[in-house]
UniProtKB/TrEMBL annotation:
Name used for this protein in its record: Regulator of protease activity HflC (Stomatin/prohibitin superfamily)
Domain Band: 20-180
UniProt cross-references to SMART domains, sorted A to Z: PHB
Membrane-spanning ranges: 6-25
SUPFAM superfamilies: Band 7/SPFH domain
Amino acid sequence: MFGFVFAIIILLLIIFLILSGLYVVKQQTVAIVERFGKYQRTSTSGINFKIPFGVDVIAARIQLRVLQSEIVVETKTQDNVFVTMNVATQYRVNEENVTDAYYKLMHPEAQIKSYIEDALRSSVPKLTLDELFEKKDEIALEVQKQVAEEMSTYGYIIVKTLITKVEPDAEVKQSMNEINAAQRKRVAAQELAEADKIKIVTAAEAEAEKDRLHGVGIAQQRKAIVDGLAESIQEIKSANVGMTEEQIMAILLTNQYLDTLNTFATQGNQTLFLPNTPNGIEDIRSQMLSALKADKGSSNPF
């Protein structure tokens, strides 16, 4: 009976020792195990065993996931403008160098911040404010390379460095906004002036084309009248009525004059001043013949 109880006690003790020595490491995490204060091994994810009663101790659990640190750096550009830069740095522990990450560096985030501040304060003063905005991605890549080289000796990998914000001094920012607003207003004024110019030129061209077409229409109308008169004269001549060319022209012009008066009368609301003497029509006919004779030297439609 005593032997059975003793065996149960021994069994329970063994179970207790085993259970007390078991520990679990989560995914994307490693555990630093020390034995009597000295590094013993690095345990990966899953169930692991250590010697209990303080012989083996889990000194630290280190995450292997990517971590992000937000850093604010104030520096000055080449044109003496103070800027505040927000920098986001993503980093993680190198799985092949976990011991250095734990034993060589106490505060990795503070160390990364120091390296980034030093890199930015040596790069940004070489650039103007405009160049800083244009080349911020190139600066971030350069800073990443410098910091990655330094942090690799401590077992850390710099995954990505981003300059998320560049904020100039408030007065400088206000001045830049005013300059941009003035430039935009000037461009807008130039565009409006150009639009007005196009309108004026287009209207002038349209008016000139209108006048040209009007002149062409009048010329064609006059030519048609002259051609009609010439044709009528030729027809009367061919009829052998014994009339001279001047007499024929007088008759045709008188008919044309009367037709014109009839046209004015049918249009309504027209005021026309005519000679009131008995010889008024004869005077008009004589004037028309004189005008035709004057032009006859240059062009004779008959």
